[in-house]
Amino acid sequence: MTEMMIEAAGLNKYFSDFHVLRNIDLQVKSGERVVLCGPSGSGKSTLIRCLNGLELHQGGKLAVCGIALTNTRRSIDLVRRRTGMVFQNFNLFPHMTAVENCMIAPMRVRGLTREEARAVAETYLRRVHVEDQINKYPAQLSGGQQQRVAIARALAMSPDVMLFDEPTSALDPEMVGEVLDTMTEIASEGTTMICVTHEMGFARKIADRVVFMDAGAIVETAPPEEFFTQSRTPRAREFLSWVMH
Amino acid sequence: MFQPYTWNHVFFMLGGLGTTIWLAAIALVGGSIAGSILALVRVAHNPLLRNAARLYIFVVQGTPLLVTLFIAYFGARWIGIDVAPVVAIAVAFSFYAAAFLGEIWRGAIESVPHGQREGSHALGLSYADAMRFIIVPQAIRIATPPTVGFFVQLIKNTSLASVVGIVELTRTSQIVSNATFKPLDVYLTAATFYFVVCFPLTLLSRYLERRLGTQTK
């Protein structure tokens, strides 16, 4: 279980002149749960989006699930088959029911039959506790339910790594809890997770490591207890004073 | 002496209506096929293809339909293609329709939120699958009202074919009007015919919009 899921070395990225990621070194082992945090604009979303090729990096080396991600169509496709991603705005397909949302990729990418895909989809929808809503369209679900369907949709591909990009930031406050509970359950099953979030309580509970980013660079990496109680950098302490109130 | 305006004239005009519908049908089918290819090429990755499609759209949208018709009508003969004028004109309508439908559908494809593409890609769906199962079905709903609106316009625009001698509804009306000297009666009849063809399309558009809309609120 010491297989490396993410290996980034000297990763750089620019948006034209703007240097968004500066020499990122990050290693995530199989089964590890890493929380990425930092002020907005620090590059954490960009970093997580580089990990499945939604953003292309311009320098350095990146390997995901043992596959060298080289910005080629083929390497990106291979990586996407083994990673699942959950977005801030869910990105559910509005013209498909919850269960259809979870069936499309197993059918088209993994080649399952309709019946097999349905069985897989139902399993994961049960796991995120929306089994009563599977025939509803996204617009008929609450934000929390939508995000849990999105989690099930990603899990239905049995990914080796789950990427969460601020999964609770677009939710009404009373729905944040149910999504975090679902994510905690997934974490307890040993899934490798990388999660961009401002939910520090959640980070404290599930993370093996907290990675703090600022201005495109990783400033500090520490186990959560250490990070929250005795962070080494002033920038991290300043950030924590903001988010912890 | 002028002839009295009789049922025989109306039946003659009905024959013209047949040609009008035939012209419009070729233009709708041909324009839809070419238009959907054009729309996909317009959003393709290859810049060469993309710009070629753009140039085509600029040229066709920037020239009057009447001129396009003249070019098709005389051009077909000039390059020695021995087809019935009505076919040459139907093809010209198809090219014209393609330029407009291509743009309407490109706009619809691009107005599907970007997150839908990212969601598809993150799941590992190929570009073609993402288009087919995720993007295009949503684009169709957005594109329905302007597409049907354009279809209705296209049917009415087939009246321009009368100037190159195609005997469609407007041309038959001119003929009857000249013979009977009852232009108001004759053109009111023609207007009724056009309306009877176009109105059901407008109803269809409303129905489709409602039906496609129920899924997503």
Distance between the termini of chain B: 63 Å
Average pLDDT of chain B, rounded to a whole number, is 90
Sequence of secondary-structure elements of chain A: EEEHEEHEHHHEHEHEEHH
Taken together, the total number of domains of chain B comes to 1
Order of helices and strands of chain B: HHHHHHHH
- Count helical runs of chain B: 8
Mean pLDDT, all residues of chain A? 94
Stretches with pLDDT under 50, minimum 5 residues of chain A: none
From the structure provided, what is the oligomeric state, counting identical versus distinct chains? Answer: heterodimer
Which two chains form the greatest contact, residue counts included?
A-B, 28 and 20 residues
Label the CATH architecture of chain A.
Answer: 3-Layer(aba) Sandwich
Number of domains of chain A: 1
Task: Give the proportion of residues in helices of chain B.
Answer: over 70%
Most strands sheet of chain A: 6 strands, mixed
> Count of DSSP E strands of chain A?
10
Structural class of chain A: alpha/beta
CATH class of chain A, please? Alpha Beta
CATH class of chain B: Mainly Alpha
Count all strands of chain B and give the number.
Answer: 0
CATH superfamily of chain B: MetI-like
Family (chain B): Belongs to the binding-protein-dependent transport system permease family. HisMQ subfamily.
InterPro entries (chain B): AA_ABC_transptr_permease_3TM (IPR010065), ArtM/GltK/GlnP/TcyL/YhdX-like (IPR043429), MetI-like (IPR000515), MetI-like_sf (IPR035906)
Organism (chain B): Chelatococcus asaccharovorans
GO biological process, one term (chain B): amino acid transport
